[in-house]
Amino acid sequence: MKGHASESNRIDSDCPTEIGPPRFDESLRAWVLSRYSDVVAAFHCPSLFPSGLNSKPSSKIPEPEAMQQMRRETREALSPAQLRIWRKSLTAAARARVKRMSDSAPVDLVGSYSRPLCLTLAAMVTGIEAEKAARLSVIAEPISASAAEPYDPVLKTGARSANAKLRGHFRSGPEPLRDSGFVALAHTLPCLLANAWLALLESPSQWRALHDEPALAVHAVEELLRCSALPSILFRQAQEEFEFNGVRIRKGERVVLRVVAANRDPAHFLHPDRLDIRRRRIRQLALGAGPHSCVGAGLIRMAAVCILHPLLERFPEAKLTRSVQWKGGSGFRYPASLWVRFGGEKA
What we know:
By secondary structure, this protein is of the alpha+beta class. The protein contains 12 helices and 12 strands. The chain has one domain: CATH 1.10.630.10.
């Protein structure tokens, strides 16, 4: 296990000094990309396909035609008209929760607000009942834990078992909106939002700006995605030998994309460690780019706005009341809870 931890620390660090040209890491047996320009190029590269952390060549790469068909079906299921329906329902659920809050008692933004709303969305999108969604969410926990720390073999075994149990409950709709979509919405999205909330809590002026100008929320989500550090890393595999930005990558070799580093590359972002909801031309990479970008990006953006906006609209300020306890690992890290007290509410 110590070996896994050292690998995680080496590729997960978001220190700007570790941003540099492509390098081959002998211990990982993989190319590591950290510059914004390199990671963007990798997302657009037709010779690189998504893969896991295993260094062995994969034989499970789907045919391009099958991948395109799956993406078309998913985009149709996530049509603007459908997103508007879910937006209306999710906004109503968020406003109802915010209405029950007060500035007299601390609230956990993760456990009492974001996570229940994300589970509601997961049930809507996958077409299952709310009560069943709650049960399946418990089954799905090991899958999320393994994604957060992909180098842990024990977590990987637990995820494999959980996947087998979960898969049988989702039989309709495009594949990305079945069991994997449920896990992403019920578990990964709350982690992303937890990081977004923390970034705002650590920048009171930005919280206040969003309270004063709610119309900024849509643009602000892009900056929050950039700062969310989710995902930290992604894996790709070369399907043929090719030259990439001055290096020769052979068929079957892995490529590690340090998304968290690329999103804070000072060569691309001015003051990269500063949250600036008015930042222009953000083009963050948390949702990928090019042909392998997240097919559910529109759904994630919609959900983030719906969940963030009502709370920021009501409360001009919020302060942490407890220290942050982190969970996760090299895949992504997130606050387990965010206990806050609100203030400044208008009468």
